[in-house]
Automatic annotation (TrEMBL):
Mg(2+) binds at T20. This is Shikimate kinase. GO terms for molecular function: ATP binding; magnesium ion binding; shikimate kinase activity. One of its GO terms (cellular component) is cytosol. Monomer. Pathway: Metabolic intermediate biosynthesis; chorismate biosynthesis; chorismate from D-erythrose 4-phosphate and phosphoenolpyruvate: step 5/7. Keywords: Amino-acid biosynthesis, Aromatic amino acid biosynthesis, ATP-binding, Cytoplasm, Kinase, Magnesium, Metal-binding, Nucleotide-binding, Transferase. Belongs to the shikimate kinase family. It holds the Pfam family SKI. GO terms for biological process: amino acid biosynthetic process; aromatic amino acid family biosynthetic process; chorismate biosynthetic process. It is found in: Cytoplasm. Binds 1 Mg(2+) ion per subunit. It comes from Meridianimarinicoccus aquatilis.
Length: 190
């Protein structure tokens, strides 16, 4: 059954949870744009995330992140992938709750580590012991991600498409996010 997205779906969760990959497929299934917040920050700053962190620090980056989030949420409904730290800010959580809906892609630590361990593009993992850093982030951020109104478990044996379908099905159980074709037809007649 075709669906119309009524509000922006903001994917939150740890690095490696699949926010970008799943978000891209989910957007295609819904026929809406997929937007990666980190890509938009990099375009606005004309620098990579790693360069922003190195040259200006995390506080500067977080302020830019909030400004970009505000701009994206003010646009048409889309699937929006956030950076791993974006949802930690109460201000960002309030913006998302007011204009969209947060979906936590919840993945176990070992799955996240398997996905991020060989990528050199994660500034927060550029430490002497990246696994311990990831574990500390996982332990600290989990309770905050749990504040998202919708949780979808990410499984290692699920394909990206399977996870996107699980998100879509979960969205369908929450009123006010998707309009099914009955709602779309009745709005067209009004």
């Amino acid at each position: 059954m075709p669906h119309e997205l009524k509000k922006t779906v903001v994917l939150v969760g740890m690095m490696g949870a699949g926010k970008t990959a799943v978000g891209t497929v989910l957007a295609r299934k819904l026929g809406v744009d997929f937007v990666d917040q980190d890509d938009e920050i990099q375009k606005a700053a004309n620098r990579s995330i790693a360069e922003i962190f190195k040259e200006n620090g995390e506080a500067f980056f977080r302020e830019k992140e909030t400004r970009v989030l505000e701009r994206l949420l003010a646009g048409p409904p889309c699937i929006l992938s956030t950076g791993g730290g974006a949802f930690l800010s109460e201000r960002n959580r309030d913006l998302i709750a007011a204009q969209g809906v947060a979906v936590w892609l919840k993945a176990e630590l070992n799955l996240l580590w398997a996905r991020v361990r060989y990528r050199g593009t994660r500034p927060l993992l550029m430490t002497d012991n990246p696994f311990e850093t990831l574990k500390s982030l996982y332990d600290a951020r989990g309770p905050v991600y749990a504040l998202a109104p919708i949780h979808v478990q990410v499984f290692s044996n699920y394909s990206i498409d399977d996870t996107a379908q699980a998100v879509l099905e979960t969205l369908g159980t929450h009123p006010g996010i998707l309009a099914d074709d009955t709602e779309i037809t009745s709005h067209a007649r009004s």
